[in-house]
Design a protein that fits this description.
5 helices, alpha+beta, single chain, about 25% strand, about 180 residues, five-stranded mixed sheet
């Protein structure tokens, strides 16, 4: 026999079951989000974004026009790209075409030793012989952000276009 309204009772009976399933799902997802927490390095993200901005500035369509970069601007590439300079930033661009290598840079190249130190910590577990994990953790907050990538591009110089590679390297040190 079909009775009107008989489905309402079934829905009312399902409410506690749905609440229980939802509570279990929240507990499982909550526990897994704590267990699988992802640690993101802000300086790494900054260096990636700055690296992409440099690439977009220098060769937006895959052609690097060296004639547009004055000789005196080759050591101030951030200013050339309209990016605010900072003492915490190092940018190095190596242009390797068939004809020659050209280096564009900005910032203190000496910051690269800091990255080398932290690479040693990652490989060996300590930066200085005899350091324990507590000392390593104390300096971990100073780990710089680093981005490096190589791109295939056309290099235009003196009216001639050549195949080439452009290596972009960005290091962002900690804020003082």
């Amino acid at each position: 026999m079909n009775k009107r309204g008989s489905g309402v009772g079934d829905i009312v009976e399902m409410v506690p079951v749905l609440v229980l399933i939802s509570a279990i799902a929240v507990v499982i997802f909550g526990a897994s989000s704590v267990y699988y927490a992802y640690d993101i390095s802000v300086r790494d993200a900054e260096s990636l974004l700055l690296g992409r901005a440099i690439v977009e500035c220098l060769f937006p369509e895959g052609v690097l026009n060296l004639d547009n970069i004055k000789e005196e601007d080759r050591s101030f590439i951030l200013r050339h790209c309209g990016i605010e300079e900072s003492e915490r930033i190092y940018v190095g661009v190596e242009v390797d075409s068939d004809a020659r290598k050209v280096y564009l840079k900005d910032g203190d190249e000496g910051l690269l030793w800091v990255r080398d130190l932290f690479e040693k910590v990652v490989v060996t577990g300590n930066a200085v012989s005899g350091w324990n994990n507590e000392n390593v953790e104390k300096i971990a907050k100073y780990n710089p952000g680093y981005f490096s990538d190589e791109y295939k591009a056309f290099v235009f110089e003196n009216g001639v276009t050549r195949d080439g590679f452009v290596k972009v390297e960005v290091l962002i040190n900690y804020e003082k």
